[in-house]
Amino acid sequence: MTTLLQHADYGHLLPAAHGLLEEHTDATKAHLIATGAAMEALAKKFGGDEQTWKVAGMLHDLDWDKLDKDYEAHCGDTLEHLLSTIGAPQELLGDIRAHYQHQYGAEYPLDTMLRKCLYCVDELTGFIIAVTLVRPSKKIADVEVKSVKKKLKDKGFAAQVDRSQIASCEELLRMPLDEFIQITLDAMKSVANDLGL
Ligand SMILES: [Fe+2]
Description:
Blueprint: H1 14-24, H2 29-46, H3 50-59, H4 77-84, H5 90-98, H6 101-104, H7 113-133, H8 145-153, H9 163-167, H10 169-172, H11 177-190, H12 192-195
The structure holds fe (ii) ion (FE2).
């Protein structure tokens, strides 16, 4: 049985998504740019709509810098309001809520390839940024798959990152972890300047 790629195409929102990042994000911006690039690369791999997947990646934590540590509110009213300002369809809200499975899993299951990819890659892009920042050069060009894997095994490093969510690529995407890291890392290297890394 094949899995639906995405519920709707909303790639036309890409320029508006860039505007929202500029206006509403701060510390989270690099993570969102990274996740947008990774989702675009994963769309290419799986045959999804590249711009739609990129928009989902770019906006999935749009509300994060406004939460004031109230993480229960993540993907709630603030996000819904921000998305309404660009006329985003309900499917985008659903795709974003699906990445926050412990809160929204029942209502928004991981039932498309887009949702599965976003769920798996979310923790990985943040982790790769953390790996880059402990390199002497702090340059993502110097990061390799094997250095990422080594740090994943070091449980004390970036301990808040859920390793099992990253590793679920094997089950959810039927993609080996090495390949998943390679695709994500290459995508992030392609936007190194925008990431400031
Ligand atoms: Fe995220």
